[in-house]
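dumping this here before i forget
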Amino acid sequence: MKKLILKGGDFRTELENITPMKQQKKKFHRLLPRPFLVLAPMYEVTDSAFRQIIAARGAPDIFVTEFVSADALVHPEASRKVAHLLAFDERERFRILPDGSREREAFLQAQIFGADPATMAAAAGICAEWGFDGVDINMGCPEKNIQKQGSGAALIRTPERALEILRAVREGAGGLTVSVKTRIGYLREEIDTWLPAILEGKPDILTVHLRTKKEMSLVPAHWEWAERIVAWRDRVSPRTLLVGNGDIVDLEDAEEKIARYGLDGAMLGRAVFGNPWLFARRKKEPSWEEKVRTLSEHTALFARLYTGVRNFAVMKRHFAAYLRGFAGAKKLRGDLMTVSSAPEAIAKLEEFLRKSLVEEEE
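structure:
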């Protein structure tokens, strides 16, 4: 099995130095617990560094990578510029036991977007070769540059093309689980037309963000329509696992919505900001010290994986998210917003820890 190795800012494929997994006899979605939880793919947020931090504290049932352009992924030169978006570490999905064996904790999907079925099939094949457990097709991104390509949420307007892409990706993925993430409509709610159309393609998993493309994330998610979506799934493709997404604040909220509406799973996104403990089912909130130490660890890991590849400013949204709810957090956030490198950030975090711990002892 191949995996993306991060080495000195150069992303390339290389054989792993561990014993490859035996191929699962079943698609992974058939092995999921009920209900199950998914971490939403979020560009410049849920990269491998953050996924590793989350996994070390308690993983969801499914991780999904940041989205990547299929056109770029299949291009000999462009692929080198986007490969970091699909980089992963086995610790994201396995816990290493004392005897060196591995125990699976999560499945890992690659999310791709595009408008050409043949290109999407080729990209799915690359994802399979690189060792992912499944492929997720983005049919919900509202970004304008994605729309112009006829991909993302634009596919809601071209259901025949969307079905062609789904079938092509299934063929290209070589037996892996194939899922679709989409919305309830483009300019208006289209549950009774768009969702039956994509369900005709029998995706293994269908994740529905309960807003339209036009609504972005500017209005509350329309959970009142979830039962209609479940009814269409039951009628058109009853073996498709259905996942709800939008405004889920924590695990209790996720499980309540799953039970209320008859879903198979829930996808959580913004709830993980500054909270890599989200899936850990902890009874106590992390202390200020744990938050600061975890952010320092996260910063160091980001630097090790992405120096020379991603702008360090990406980490600043994490600074703002972690550092809340304790004395000195506001000033520390402000101090960190002025730094331009990981060593600077870590030095400020360590200084804050040292001074705060001394003050607690006095």
